[in-house]
User: What shape does this take?
Amino acid sequence: MIRRLTPLMILAVILVATIADAQPQRPTRPDLTREGRWDFGLQTRYNWGAEYDRSNGSSITLHDDLGWGFGFGYHISNKFNLGMNFGWRSVPYDAVAVDATDPAATSRYSGKLSTSTIGLTGDWNILPGKITPYINGGLAWMLIDTNIFAGWSNGCWWDPWWGYVCGSVPATYGKTTGAYTLGGGMRFEINDSFFIRAGYERGWIGSGSIDGTNLLRIDLGLMN
Assistant: This one.
């Protein structure tokens, strides 16, 4: 997966650098380069695989996966940015389930774990210059869908094409939970309008069923 990801990242960085070089330069502000400005960014989120074991013998193995996201933020000062992020991914997994009444009875299955997040983020750019290390944190609401069939659900809804309709739709097992992240990395401002960020983040979910995930995040962004 890393070998497939690397050429894509290199191409994206070259493309953004080329566009940035072609843009007319704004007057440089030697004292404050970010305060009072907005960031808008497209994000890649590469998750490393991990295995999680439960005390009753059940386990789940999450595989490497490339997710996506976008976000925006406002620079309250030259160093501090407050914003919002939106992300989604579909992670392949293998699971072993143990029967609650018969520990010797196990079942194995595979699928894709879909997650969607929306949350608040805070970034602290340590240096005032255009190349700076940063630390960040986030607090989010997460929707988790196992894509495991859980029967049929009856209901009515408004369809933009067919109008008001009723019927049965397949339901899947899932849940909503809080999530939070901590991380850090480097920010590179190509010129007064474009930037690239690359960093590491560690994430946790509020249910505690998964003891943290590791991800590499690269942002390609625009400052306005």
